[in-house]
Amino acid sequence: MDARGYQQYKQQSINSMTQGELLLMLYDELVKRSTLASIALDKQDWPLFESALDRCTDIVNYLDETLDRQYPISHDLGRMYDYFTYELSRIKTGRNKKELDRLRPMLAEMRDAFRTAEKTSSGQERQV
Fold first, then answer.
1. What's the pLDDT tens digit per position in 18-30?
2. Helix %, strand %, coil % of the chain (to 5)
3. Which residue, of 31, 46, 64, 91, is most buried by count of CB atoms within 10 Å of its CB?
4. d(CA 3, CA 14)
């Protein structure tokens, strides 16, 4: 399969996803990149470590920017995203494995919470 066809397939797949599925895809990538950063830190692969954390920060910033501020929970999520951004910058600057290992489960818990909410939401839509 040529690269152009694959890119078109990926784009079409993304365009057909629901907002919940896109959100989960972002959280999956966030958890994946934080795991990659941890592995790179163990190997002392500093360029990979920094790029993985930069991507994590980009994702968290995007999640924060796309919050619909009309809902009260958005304020709480915004504060959580601010915390994640702060911690990611601290981890990157200090190359701190302990803090990264503390943050990674929090990111996974957020992903899992959104996954549960998406399942609940899609289940309710089917009943209507």
1. 888 889 999 999 9
2. 90, 0, 10
3. 91
4. 17
Q: Are 24 and 110 in contact, with CB atoms under 8 Å apart? A: no
DSSP per-residue letters across 7-27: HHHHHHHHHTS-HHHHHHHHH
Backbone angles phi, psi at 69, to 5 degrees: -70, 0
Amino acid at 114: F
CA distances 121 to 18, 29, 77, 113, 117, Å, are 11, 22, 19, 12, 6
pLDDT in tens, 12-68: 656 667 888 889 999 999 999 999 999 999 999 999 999 999 999 999 999 999 999
Q: Are 50 and 92 in contact (CB under 8 A)?
A: yes
